[in-house]
Amino acid sequence: MNKKELAREIFNTSHLTGVFKLRSGKESDKYFDKYLFESNPKLLAEVADKLAPLIPLDTEILAGLEMGGIPIATALSLKTGIPVVFVRKKAKEYGTCKLAEGKDIDGKKVCIIEDVVTTGGQILLSAEDLKKYGAKVKDVVCVIEREEAGRNNLESADLVFHSLFTMEELLSAVSEA
Ligand SMILES: O=P(O)(O)OC[C@H]1O[C@H](OP(=O)(O)OP(=O)(O)O)[C@H](O)[C@@H]1O
Ligand SMILES: O=C(O)c1cc(=O)[nH]c(=O)[nH]1
């Protein structure tokens, strides 16, 4: 599957219209239900294929953000051989009390993996959390950049943002079909 075909598949599988409250609190007439493509093994593997080249070569650990970033980071880990951690929105309050589940991230170069970026708010929170545990966080890789404030907010926080598809790319792939 080439990149344009994947764009079409992702759009057709996961793009919904209606009235949706977003994580940021804003309301939107569109929503990508990422679980609809992540739960399809063929599409998840294609996403990992196309995302893998965006991961910086010196990455030591992939950090999949709860919850939608976790399947993608896992697929990327299987593809690249780079270990993965599963990052909770809030550290577990019993047992190991971990925020990032998996191997120790202290001193490691970590690349954040996310599904959809709107304002980048969740990534900013998780990046700060990971840094508190000693991770070196610079790069973020996501599947869908909704082209709202996300890129500016992430770059203002000195993060390097790599997206597979912008909203414009998804729309144009579908309109060309
Ligand atoms: O760029 P932002 O404005 O922060 O919004 C995008 C975030 O919101 C969604 O997660 P959601 O809170 O729906 O959680 P989930 O992945 O656990 O379903 C998405 O997966 C991003 O994490
Ligand atoms: O901004 C969000 O919360 C958001 C947008 C979107 O398209 N998909 C999603 O899972 N979350």
TrEMBL record:
Binding-site residues for orotate, renumbered to this chain: 118, 146
Keyword Transferase appears in the UniProt entry: yes
Keyword Glycosyltransferase tagged: yes
Name by which UniProt lists this protein: Orotate phosphoribosyltransferase
Entry-linked PANTHER family: OROTATE PHOSPHORIBOSYLTRANSFERASE (PTHR19278), URIDINE 5'-MONOPHOSPHATE SYNTHASE (PTHR19278:SF9)
Protein residues bound to 5-phospho-alpha-D-ribose 1-diphosphate: 23, 88-89, 92, 114-122
Gene Ontology biological-process annotations: 'de novo' UMP biosynthetic process; pyrimidine nucleobase biosynthetic process
A Pfam family of this chain: Pribosyltran
UniProt pathway annotation: Pyrimidine metabolism; UMP biosynthesis via de novo pathway; UMP from orotate: step 1/2
Entry keywords, A to Z: Glycosyltransferase, Magnesium, Pyrimidine biosynthesis, Transferase
Organism: Cohnella abietis
Main enzyme class: transferase
Record note on quaternary structure: Homodimer.
Names of the cofactor(s): Mg(2+)
E.C. designation(s): 2.4.2.10
